[in-house]
TrEMBL record:
It comes from the Bacteria. This is 50S ribosomal protein L5. One of its GO terms (cellular component) is ribosome. It comes from Acinetobacter baumannii. Keywords: Ribonucleoprotein, Ribosomal protein. The keyword Ribonucleoprotein applies. The keyword Ribonucleoprotein applies.
């Protein structure tokens, strides 16, 4: 999670702000929760 959050903050936030023409930093979407699901088939 730490690597994903760091990459989001360092690289993706700036790109999102530029693409969506967002002027206020507080309007940029934030990552709050990541959920992973994994199926194990026939247990």
């Amino acid at each position: 999670m730490a690597r994903l959050k760091a990459r989001y903050n360092d690289e993706l936030k700036a790109k999102l702000q530029e693409e969506l023409s967002i002027k206020n930093v507080m309007e940029i979407p934030r990552i709050t929760k990541i959920t992973l699901n994994m199926g194990v088939g026939a247990a």
